[in-house]
Design a protein that fits this description.
The protein has 153 residues and is mainly alpha-helical. It has helices at residues 12-42, 48-59, 65-72, 76-88, 110-131, 136-151, and strands at residues 92-96, 104-108. The protein has a single domain, classed as Orthogonal Bundle (Arc Repressor Mutant, subunit A), CATH 1.10.10.10. A two-stranded antiparallel ribbon has the order 1-2. A hairpin with a 7-residue loop joins strand 1 (92-96) and strand 2.
Length: 153
């Protein structure tokens, strides 16, 4: 008969580090959210959800409204509204889904790609400002660690 041995609880130091990282990531997310919202208002009132939608359809193929809803963590009707707004602004177009006549694939228009390119530049500039305190060596280490987090199974 084998005993179930409980996993060791994380050390107090590790828990403190995890809390600190969580707090820092939330702060970075909040800062970027505020800055990108300001940028969106300055550039024609496109919302962050619309920006995230344009980014998604620009980086993946076969994106549907349902996928947008899942990606943004919103309802399908809310995603439909975002898509309608982007379509009205000539930022995206719909194409028939050859595998499902009930859904459409979403593609960015030339105007949508241009707007997204400008937005990505602002995002990059803001993120670069956040990382300014890091030395070159620290920045390389940060890049290595974040890549490790995002590529693990």
């Amino acid at each position: 008969m084998t005993k179930n041995i409980p996993a060791a609880a994380p050390s107090k130091t590790r828990m403190e580090a995890l809390r600190s990282i969580t707090e820092t990531w939330r702060g970075i997310k909040q800062h970027m959210h505020v800055r990108m919202s300001e940028h969106a208002r300055e550039r024609s009132a496109t919302s962050l959800s619309q920006c995230a939608t344009l980014h998604l359809i620009s980086t993946r193929t076969s994106v549907t409204v349902k996928m947008i809803a899942l990606f943004l963590g919103i309802t399908s009707p809310a995603a439909t509204q975002i898509v309608r707004e982007l379509e009205t602004q000539d930022m995206l177009k719909k194409e028939p889904n050859p595998h499902d006549s009930r859904s459409m694939f979403l593609r960015p228009t030339t105007a949508g790609k241009r707007w997204l390119s400008r937005t990505e530049k602002v995002f990059d500039q803001e993120f670069e400002k956040l990382l300014t305190p890091l030395t070159d060596a620290e920045l390389i280490e940060y890049a290595r660690l974040t890549k490790k987090l995002t590529t693990r199974s």
